[in-house]
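User: I'm preparing a small set of examples for a lab meeting where we compare how different chains pack in three dimensions. I only have the primary sequence for this one, and I'd like the structure in token form so I can line it up with the others. Please keep the answer compact; I'll paste it straight into my notes.
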Amino acid sequence: MIISIKLKTDEQFAYYRYSQNWDSKRRLVSVKDAGCLDNVWVICFTIRKINANKSMGDFHMSKARLKNGTIFGLSFFLCILLALSGCASKQREIIDSNNLSGKTIGVMLGYSSDYILTNDNKDVELRRFDSYSDMMLALAFHQLDAAAMERDEAYVFCRLQPEYMIYGTFAKNDQYAYVLNPNSTELNEQWNSFIAEFRQTDLYMDMLKRVKECSKQPFESKPVENTGTGDKVFKALVHADWEPVSYINTETNEWEGTDIELITHFANTIGAKIEFYPAGSYTQAVLDLSLGKVDIYACPDSLRIKTDLEKAGNVTMSDCVWEKDIVLVVNTADYQNKN
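Assistant: Understood. Below is the structure token output for the 339-residue chain.
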């Protein structure tokens, strides 16, 4: 569940996304449309200007109904109040992706963007977050100069919330790979051989094209039929809420995304049935791999972390699967008076 709040002067305004992370239509729903849903508390704000330098927010809580029956209680309410401290918009200096010295950049804790920015930019103040919703709220409340993330997910964030914009590219064509069980030598060799060939195909190029189109429209899924027969099963650990990479379509209850299509193609190549399992914590994913419960963890990470990731001997990284950019996403309100 993600709650996303957007504030406007003299207007009650709250947006929220529902189901696992994105709903199947991947839209933001305004408070006035909430009557058809079930069981969620949505915090609405009325902002009125006090003077040129200050604003004061009145709030109330309205109970909307959300399909999955989750109730957000007092803890979320208090978090929002804390986040409001110092959230007034201020005009920032134009950000330069080639010189981030002195800037405050949000990253997801332990993600590739965190690793790369930590090692490549010593003068940047990084604020690490446990969830994308927290990071984007910080950006909405003007606590960050920018948020760093992979371009494919930035496409989705900026499409769903037009006040955000991709403002620069920090790392270009960084090589990303999946995580494998180091003890499955033969299977890993099959995977690496497959991906080297598959990246040259029209099918792969079409996936890249559809990812790019996510900046304007929801990811266009092209389901791949699993033709594997017999007893051979390929088990993949994937994320259930990561458009366009991997997610569950809540209308069909089917897995969709680039990782889903790619892995199904591989399963067909080796004549295996495919089974997808939703990933939990990274620690649990490593444990499942090391115990042989799954064959692959499809959480694309930069190959820059390969040495550190493989030190304990519990996992190994595959060869390059995707080339991704890490981009900077800004709140356009911070730059609206700039040329």
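A couple of notes for your slides: The radius of gyration is 21 Å. Residues 1-75, 81-86 have pLDDT under 50 and may be disordered.

User: Perfect, thanks.
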